[in-house]
Amino acid sequence: MKLIKLVLLILLIITPTYAQAPQTFSSFWKSFKAALARNDKQAVADVTKLPFLYDSKERDRAGFLKIYPELFSPKMRRCLINSKPDKEGEYYEVFCRDLIFMFGKDSDGKYKFLEFGVND
User: In the chain, where are the structural domains located?
Assistant: First the structure.
């Protein structure tokens, strides 16, 4: 038994640890679209920068989940799922109807749904 523990300890010491590969926008976008397709508001909230500004009020996670159906109607989800993001500097934009959805890296270095605005 002691020999097994010793072998496991040695393996832990000599096994190189690899840093997690940086997230790409492409992998984020696939996950985001899949969550929208499932209408999984929890998963969408997981990749949204919180607090989220909506109707001039900052929304925490619970607040975001409440406004999710209004922001992501079936038509809006279809539009986002079928759209190709445009790269604008360090951000990505998706135009759906009269709205622009913005995506980019948060302070944690991971891609997130950052905000939306009126497409004027």
Answer: 22-118
Q: Are 82 and 63 in contact (CB under 8 A)?
A: no
Beta carbons of 59 and 50 less than 8 angstroms apart: yes
Render the burial of 2-20: b for 16+ CB within 10 Å, e for the rest: eeeeeeeeeeeeeeeeeee
Q: Does the pLDDT at position 45 exceed 70?
A: yes
CATH number for the domain whose boundaries are 22-118: 3.10.450
Q: For 18-35, what is each residue's pLDDT tens digit?
A: 445 567 999 999 999 999
Cα–Cα distance for residue pair 65/77, rounded to 1 Å: 15
Per-chain mean pLDDT for the chain: 86
For the chain, the distance separating the N- and C-terminal CA atoms, rounded to the nearest angstrom, is 70
When computed from its CA atoms, the radius of gyration of the chain, rounded to whole angstroms, is 20
**pTM for this model (two decimals):** 0.78
